[in-house]
Design brief:
single chain, alpha/beta, Rossmann fold, 2 domains, seven-stranded mixed beta sheet, five-stranded mixed beta sheet, 12 strands, Transketolase_C, THDP-binding
Length: about 325
């Protein structure tokens, strides 16, 4: 077994922003009383003149960021995903997306990663809300290596974006950062012929481990990492789905209007493809740490492998 990764995606984001901020004073970081949760302390210490603390005022966080962008600055606004995607959504739509301001919105502690804090701090609908807004990139990296690549690309981009990050460190999906990354492009993590897992964010590692469990039983499961919901890689999704004919989408998000819905929309005109959506059901998720919540809702690797077996048994040739 590889050594367990202890570096969170938020720590990687901070490292990238410190380096970029030292090279470009127009790069600013804004937070809503969340610099600790966002792992931004090194940025505060290194570049104290380039961070703005707005307090618990998420709407103002977004609007101030948009105003700074209009002045030629390059703001990165970090706030818990549950608040950034709900409390300030009008400002996201009007001040950022509609106005096409160069604001990068970082939703920290996304999904159910706030754990025991419960429903008020879960963000099970952030993909649903943000992917419905035109002119807003919606992204979620699988691990620390993709996070670095993603934010290096975002620093060079002028497009508005919402990026969801989990709270805890996740096991690596990539072995290093020696891979091509492009916003809007999916990555095939494991090749397969019998079944396709399409996953996003922290569920990518779970899908990869499920594929390894199925391999031991003679089932070849492909794993596709879709880290971009908007823009969406229809070509890669359709190619993998056509190859295997059986698709399981996996997401730490409501089953409504997230990754599963995006895949279903992409495959709507295709025939002969079976899709199963695995995510958080139409209810308020239970409170608990991520591993137990994942297992409860069938998002862990063992549960995913069992779902794959059942789909093969029912529809496989």
């Amino acid at each position: 077994m590889p050594e367990k990764n202890k570096i969170t995606n938020s720590q990687v984001v901070c490292d990238v922003l410190v380096k970029a901020g030292q090279e470009n004073p127009d790069i600013l970081v804004l937070t809503s009383d969340s610099r600790g949760s966002a792992k931004l302390t090194p940025f505060v210490k290194s570049l104290p003149e380039q961070i703005i603390e707005v307090g618990i005022a998420e709407q103002d966080l977004v609007s101030i960021s948009a105003g700074l962008a209009h002045m030629g600055k390059h703001p990165f606004a970090a706030s818990p995903a549950c608040f950034l995607s709900m409390r300030s959504i009008e400002q996201v739509k009007v001040d950022v997306a509609y106005s096409h301001t160069n604001v990068k919105l970082i939703g920290i502690s996304g999904g159910i990663s706030y754990g025991a804090l419960g429903m008020s701090h879960h963000s099970a609908q952030d993909f649903a809300v943000t992917r419905a807004i035109p002119n807003l990139q919606v992204l979620c990296p699988a691990d620390r290596f993709e996070t670095r690549k993603m934010f290096e690309a975002l620093i060079k981009s002028d497009e508005p974006a919402y990026i969801r990050l989990g709270r805890s460190a996740v096991q690596d999906c990539y072995t290093d950062d020696n891979f091509n990354f492009e916003i809007g492009k999916a990555h095939t993590m494991i090749e397969g012929t019998d079944l396709t897992f399409i996953a996003i964010g922290d569920t990518v590692r779970q899908a990869m481990d499920a594929s390894l469990l199925l391999k031991a039983k003679g089932i070849s499961a492909e794993v596709l990492n879709v880290s971009s919901l908007n823009p969406f890689d229809d070509i890669a999704v359709r190619a993998s789905a056509k190859k295997t004919g059986l698709v399981i989408t996996v997401e730490e998000h409501s089953i409504h209007n997230g990754l599963g819905a995006a895949v279903a929309e992409s495959l709507a005109a295709e025939t002969g493809i079976i899709q199963k959506i695995i995510g958080l059901p139409d209810e308020y998720p239970i409170a608990g740490e991520s591993p137990e919540v994942f297992k409860y809702y069938g998002l862990d690797s063992e549960s995913l492998a069992k779902s794959g077996e059942k789909l093969i048994d029912k529809y496989g040739e």
